[in-house]
Amino acid sequence: MKKNLQRLLAAVMLLALCTACVKEESSVPKPSVIKQEPSAPAEEISIYPLTGLPSENLGNRAFAVMINNHPAARPQSGLHKADIVYEVLAEGSITRFLAIYQSELPDMIGPVRSAREYYVDLSDGYNAFFVSHGWSPQARELLEDGNHDFLNGMFYDGTLFQRADFRKAPHNSYISSEHIKKGAELNKADFSQRPDPLPFMKAVEVNKLQGKSGAEAIIRYDKSDTFESQFIYDKQSQTYFRYSTEQTKDLESDEAVAPSNVLIAEMTHEIMDKQGRRSINLTEGGKAILLQHGVSREVEWRNADGRILPYLNGEQVKLVPGKTWISIVPHLNQVTIH
């Protein structure tokens, strides 16, 4: 009987011990499990297709405007807001601008001048709605071929196009962005299709640019200074200020023309009539100089689906985000780089 009592006491003690262990174990808080929601993908930043700059609204179709560069037409209006500007010889030593707008729409643009067929070809690379006041016979034939949307001030003088009273014709024709859109509607032109984007560098790529000094470029089209273009790099804005006898600024706002990329392309020029009109070979490719971020590089230009773009070692060179200026010259020996 004594042994049975000892066994009973041992069983009771074992049961008490197990119960205490269970209570002790249950009193220890269990580690909480946090259910993590899958992280949202990083939001992509929208950029304008022709400048690579951030945008909340990607805009609509680009439009290209022929802008006068005669001394009597300076300073121009709206030139500083163009995403891309081509500077090309017209007749003699006179250059004109083809300004392509997409990211910014200036209130007033001009003075607007007449077209030549190679300006039309340059605008085609961006499927741009083409705006001019007048045209050469070759440009007229090209624009009226049924494949181009255009607006000519010859047919809207005094309505969509306005004459400024402070300048004399033919240096006084102006048009607003709103009137360009209205003209597109009148001509039933689709204004919704955005241009395909250009390739742009990231900030880290811009800071790694290497090459010769490209702080200044001087481009001469004849022996006078009238149509000489000068680009000087500004470290603070990281853009190139343009000068032609004086700094190129907007007539209304006094804002400077300040591209981030300056491409100087050598192309074959030929005189084709008694008026001195030219033909320019936009397709053969050739030598060019590219200025970016204070650096100058010898590159080649190619016509990529109608766009004049820089290439190096067979690879397309990315642009620095910002505006682009393209000067087309007969010979690169007319260019001085410092």
UniProtKB/TrEMBL annotation:
<feature type="domain" description="DUF3048">
    <location>
        <begin position="50"/>
        <end position="186"/>
    </location>
</feature>
<feature type="signal peptide">
    <location>
        <begin position="1"/>
        <end position="23"/>
    </location>
</feature>
<protein>
    <recommendedName>
        <fullName>Lipoprotein YerB</fullName>
    </recommendedName>
</protein>
<dbReference type="InterPro" id="IPR035328">
    <property type="entry name" value="DUF3048_C"/>
</dbReference>
<keyword id="KW-0732">Signal</keyword>
<dbReference type="Pfam" id="PF11258">
    <property type="entry name" value="DUF3048"/>
</dbReference>
<feature type="domain" description="DUF3048">
    <location>
        <begin position="219"/>
        <end position="326"/>
    </location>
</feature>
<dbReference type="InterPro" id="IPR023158">
    <property type="entry name" value="YerB-like_sf"/>
</dbReference>
<dbReference type="Pfam" id="PF17479">
    <property type="entry name" value="DUF3048_C"/>
</dbReference>
<dbReference type="InterPro" id="IPR021416">
    <property type="entry name" value="DUF3048_N"/>
</dbReference>
